[in-house]
Amino acid sequence: MPLDLSIIIVNTNNKKLLDQCLASIYKNTRKISFEIMVTDNNSSDGSQQMVKSQYPQVRLIENKENAGFIKASNQGLKIARGRYQMLLNDDTITQNSSFDKMVAFMDKNTKIGACGPKLLNTDGTIQKQGGVFGKKFYLSKKPVPVDFVIGACLMVRREVIEKVGMMDENLFFYNDDLDWCMSIRKAGWKIYFFPEAKIIHYGGYSSKRVFNRRLFVEGFKGGLYFCKKHYGVLAWIIYRLLLTFGMIIAIPLLIFSFPVKREKFLDRLLAYLDILRISLLQK
To answer: Which of 207, 229, 251 is a domain's end point?
Structure first.
């Protein structure tokens, strides 16, 4: 019998929250069969040792370098055995049988290729999710079709992945959930927001603790790639021009602010220059 759900978690130096995340899954998932894969991107905070000692049932992939979120997620997807496969951030806390409910919902609605839960802030308030033209689907009290749900918790039907493929490794970090969801919709599947399932999400804790030059640059680089892939060359050219103009303004403003804003000044300056170079030279 195949497993119902495979949960793929990517971790980089986030031991405390990863521990809480794993504990919440085992506590709140009772009605389905599942497995957890943790892909660790060369953490130095003892994350790997924590998983081995406290959660020996978890399938741990130990990378020797930071492979990025997308490649690391695909490593888990490649060995996943579940009928459904889920991307789950390491800064999430599962509540009240949410994964049981998501699997049951997908089983009843075979035209739906992917779904995501309601995300909550740590104080219990509803966390905003993206949407084209500002649709506030995250306020809905019933399941609704959406353009995409964010990858903090994204469940995808196995046969969908077999048709559209895994995540696009031309992206390093960011834009990945939007890209995957768009590919799923282009293949004829629906994507749903499922508010009966609730997940606490710390909201980018693992990526926003400090300014990270590489992640910042990759976000814009990936945005250009995504634009060309899904919207064509004209939209890509317009985006490049806007980005170039934005950096031409941002760089002098940053330099003039140096006497006040010294923290990470050089990293930010180099990041802006990297983005300017990419916007001018990307093919």
So the answer is: 207
245 and 114 in one domain? no
Rounded CA separation 194/221 (Å): 31
Domain, as residue range, for 277: 210-281
Distance CA 272, CA 157 (A): 39
The per-residue pLDDT for range 3-19, each reduced to its tens digit, is 999 999 999 999 999 99
For the segment 57-78, what is each residue's pLDDT rounded down to a tens digit?
Answer: 999 999 999 888 899 999 999 9
Do 171 and 140 share a domain, yes or no? yes
Q: How far apart are CA 245 and CA 73, in angstroms?
A: 34
Residues 247 and 174 in one domain: no
Q: What percent of the chain has pLDDT over 90?
A: 65
pLDDT digit string (tens) for 146-203?
Answer: 988 888 999 999 999 999 999 988 887 678 888 999 999 999 999 999 999 999 999 7
Strand partners, 85: 6, 156
Q: How many residues does the chain have?
A: 283
Residues 168, 101: Cα–Cα separation, whole Å: 28
The encoded tokens of residue 74 equal 């695909």
Residues 180 and 261 in one domain: no
Q: Are 69 and 159 members of one domain?
A: yes
Q: At a CB cut-off of 8 Å and minimum separation 6, what does 281 contact?
A: none
* Dihedral sign from CA coordinates of 78, 81, 83, 88: negative
Domain boundary residue among 188, 207, 226? 207
Q: Which residues contact 226 (CB under 8 A, 6 or more apart)?
A: 171, 175, 178, 179
Report the C-alpha gap between 147 and 154 in whole angstroms: 13
Same domain, 103 and 216: no
